[in-house]
Amino acid sequence: MAESERTDPSPAGPQEAANDAPAGINVAWTALIALGTGIIYYFSNPKPAQFYDYTFRVAGNFLNGSIGFTEKPPDWLNEFVPFEGFFYSVFPLGSVLSMVPFALLKLAGIVDQMPSALIAALCAAVSALFLTLIANHYEASITRTILMTAGILFGTWTWTNLTFGGAWQLALGFAMVGELGAIYFTVVDRRPLMAGAFFALGFGNRTEVLLTAPFLMYLTLRPQNANGGPFSFSGLLSPNNLKKLAAFCAVPFVLGISTLFYNYVRFNSFTDFGYARIPGVLNEPWYNHGIFSPYYIPRQIWEMLFKLWDIRDHFPLPVPNGFSSSILISSPFLILAFRPGARDMVLKYAAWAAVLVLCIVLWMHGNSGGWQFGYRYAIVCLPWLFLIMLENSPKKISPPEWVLYCFSFIANAYATWLFHWTENIKP
Predict the structure, then answer these.
(1) How many other CB atoms are found less than 10 A from the CB of residue 109?
(2) Residue ranges of E strands in 255-377
(3) Do 50 and 113 contact (CB within 8 A), yes or no?
(4) What is the pTM of this model?
(5) Which among 394, 385, 361 has a CA at the least distance from the CA of 131?
(6) pLDDT tens for residues 333-361?
(7) Is 90 helix (H, G, I), strand (E, B) or coil?
(8) At 114, phi and psi to the nearest 5?
(9) Which residues, including other chains, have CB under 8 Å from residue 243's CB and lie 6 or more apart?
């Protein structure tokens, strides 16, 4: 977007620097953080699951002018469903389109299979870039910026799960990039068209992200200098606001309509994504009330927040359960989101509302996410939690805060080692 098309570009009010470094972080530091994150992610898993290449395979098929496959895909790709003589993936259109650039690499002969490690590294590096830029908006010190950015990418289940490298995990990586980009271009550098494009990337890969649209629209329309004051509806339908909304909705609208038609071409229904058509899926015990149901909420709350690690009578001891475990045990620094206060209370409440909406829909899903560390679906909550923790963070990093982050780094490094470098945890 041209410079003249930017809206409300004024920066946030200045905050005092932390005690250990000048406020803000320069371009060199930002690039170094992103590069370092990408390198670590690239080498975190010596055997990424690149054979679970649903979206990469379909993207390649797109480039050949087809949507469905006439031949049955390999048996391990059991989420291809048969319909009227073809086999279709149940992944949404957005996740397939995200893979097109990498499918072009195969078409050009540069790669011969899905480059899982590269894609995971790129998602992590871009996420680190946006996390750093958002923290810089708050004029956080270099130490706090690095600590909080590393906390999200190396102190949570994101590290282990994204580096699994299957199509499911990479879709979550793209969704996280999309959410962070949407937040950055609504809260920091206000460009509605860019915000909408990143929002489309987010919900195109994880459909539940679509539920955060009202909060991002609110942030798009809200004056940058509101300073936590109430939103005025008097100018809601002003020409300037309508222009902002149109710019924000342009790309999501096109993707949404295209997804409906993509569904129709596959399954003769605009609203059928095909998940319930996976052979035998509705007979699985965790779907005894269908794919989504409020009956699952208590169980999924327990799976996400309270399920303990397994205790063995031999080394290594203890180990996380390979199908879910409490995110608060492995990432206790997240409790810092509950600190009182904020620089902008309205922004903090909007972020909490987004987290709550996302959690409710995740808890209504009967399956907690299959083979994983922690609760992989909750990756989509992390961009909003990061924003909340920036809002309520004090100027200085206290000793208890250091302890919480350090424990999180150790727990997630341990889990990444267990899942990717040992045979101690198996499906």
Answers:
(1) 7
(2) none
(3) yes
(4) 0.92
(5) 385
(6) 999 999 999 999 999 999 999 999 999 99
(7) coil
(8) -60, 120
(9) none
